[in-house]
Each structure stands twice: as C-alpha cells, then as structure tokens.
Design goal:
The protein is an alpha/beta fold and about 250 residues long. The protein has a single domain, classed as Rossmann fold (3-Layer(aba) Sandwich). It is about 35% helix and about 15% strand. The chain has a seven-stranded mixed β-sheet with strand order 3-2-1-4-5-7-6, sandwiched between helices. The termini are far apart. Pfam families: Methyltransf_23. This is Methyltransferase domain-containing protein. It comes from Fibrella aquatilis.
Length: about 250
C-alpha cells in the first residue's frame, strides 16, 4: 500500500486530533500498559531526558511518576491528560527551549514520533545540534510495513519500521545501537492475519477501557510485556524499541 504523503507542516496534531487519538483514560489500554513498562525498564539512570513529541503526555508522565528525570516538548496544541505532573512545553519547538535546559539534557526520546516524519535523519540531526551533550537516543516506532492498515493512514504515518531500518537511522546519527528489538509479537500475528484475510478496516476510534475491561487490559498488557521480554528480539512484532548511545 502506498503511504499517505504529508508535508512537514502537517506533522503537528491539533487539540481535537489529540483528543480523538488519545482520549482520557486511554492510558489504561493494554498497548500503553505494555509499552510504558518496556520503555521505563530500558532507560539509563542519572540522565535528564527530553521527550520530543510528548502529545498529551501519556508516556512522559508515566516515566516522571516512576522516578525518571524527564521533561517534554510538543509542537502541537494539546491538553495534557488529567492529573499529569510532568513538565511539558506545549506549542514549542524542542530546539527553541532555553539553552541552559538544552545543555543539561543527556538523552532524547521519540516515542512513536519519527514515523510521522518523511525524512527522519535531517529532522533528528537538527535536534541533536541543539542538544550537544546528548549521549542516548530512545525510539519506539510502529513496525513491519506488511501490516500497514488504514490506522496508519489515519495517524498520518509515512512508514512502519524494521530492525534494519532503525539501525540505519541510529548509526547515521553517529550513535551505536545497544538495543533493537520488536515487541507486541502476538499483536503482530493478529494484524498480519487481518491484513491478509479480512477486508474490513481497522477501527480508528480509540475507546478507553473502564471497570472490569480496564483490569483485563492491565493483565493483557503485562502478559505482552513478558512476551516481549522473553521472546527473541528478532521475532516480528508490531512495534520496535531501539536505543542508541555514544
């Protein structure tokens, strides 16, 4: 399938789009439960993290509340999730934050961000020039182009990444890949089957789980976390976690 092309000025979401994609309570979804935990356990202690493209702050606030020293920057206009306490700089280009802050940052995170960028390497190089003391980059991205769906179109993705794709990006920036693994392996199997055998579109509407359903999502999320930890890193999943250091 041909990816929907968008121009660079369309990469920032509006407040309405953020609310549609990340409605209140969506952080209880199994997908966020698993991804948040995987990310938290992969980060290095002692660094100040700057999260680029924080959105409503689902991941950023989770990490902040679990002891990670982190701030966020979001180019778009969004309302943070209720009860968020993490500092997020909204309607702000991450390269234009105060120099005193930028010089303190030791790591940059991009949680499902670069798939929205047509040319990610120049984009990342520009940011790195403003953060000369960064020694770590952390990425999550949607994985495997063969499971491209209408959901990717809806979210204005340019591509889904493979492990070699992410290695090329990280090494082009002068970093050494220390972690590069798929996760959500069981979800990949479901999406692969759907793209091959079903003609119905993937549901674009995000419905926050509530009550007993939320408890079930929590259990599924933790099972998927252990699935991703225990299975070989190269087993196909619907997402990639990649970390580079220098």
């Amino acid at each position: 399938m041909t990816n929907r092309a968008i121009t660079s000025d369309e990469t920032a979401f509006t407040d309405e789009e953020f609310d549609e994609i990340y409605p209140q309570g969506i952080e209880a979804n199994f997908w966020h439960t698993c991804r948040n935990r995987l990310i938290m356990n992969a980060l290095s202690p002692g660094l100040l993290y700057m999260d680029v493209g924080s959105g409503r702050g689902i991941v950023t606030d989770y990490l902040f509340k679990h002891g990670v020293v982190i701030e966020g920057a979001e180019l778009g206009d969004s309302n943070p999730m209720p009860n968020n306490t993490v500092p997020i700089h909204y309607k702000t280009n991450v390269t234009e934050l105060p120099e005193t802050l930028r010089l303190q940052v030791g790591a940059l995170t991009f949680f499902d961000v670069i798939e929205h960028i047509e040319q990610p390497i120049p984009f990342l190089e520009t940011i790195l020039k403003a953060y000369p003391n960064v020694t770590e980059l952390v990425f999550t991205v949607p994985a495997r182009q063969e499971i491209w769906t209408n959901f990717d179109e809806f979210n204005r993705h340019f591509m889904r990444y493979s492990l070699p794709d992410m290695r090329r990006v990280v090494e082009a920036l002068g970093f050494q890949v220390v972690t590069n693994r798929y996760f959500f392996q069981s979800l990949y199997c479901l999406l692969f089957a759907k793209t091959r055998f079903s003609r119905t579109d993937r549901n674009e509407q995000q419905r926050p789980p509530k009550g007993v359903v939320a408890l079930a999502h929590g259990l599924i999320g933790h099972l998927m976390y252990w699935e991703s930890k225990l299975l070989p890193s190269g087993w196909y999943g619907s997402s990639v976690l990649c970390i580079g250091r220098r």
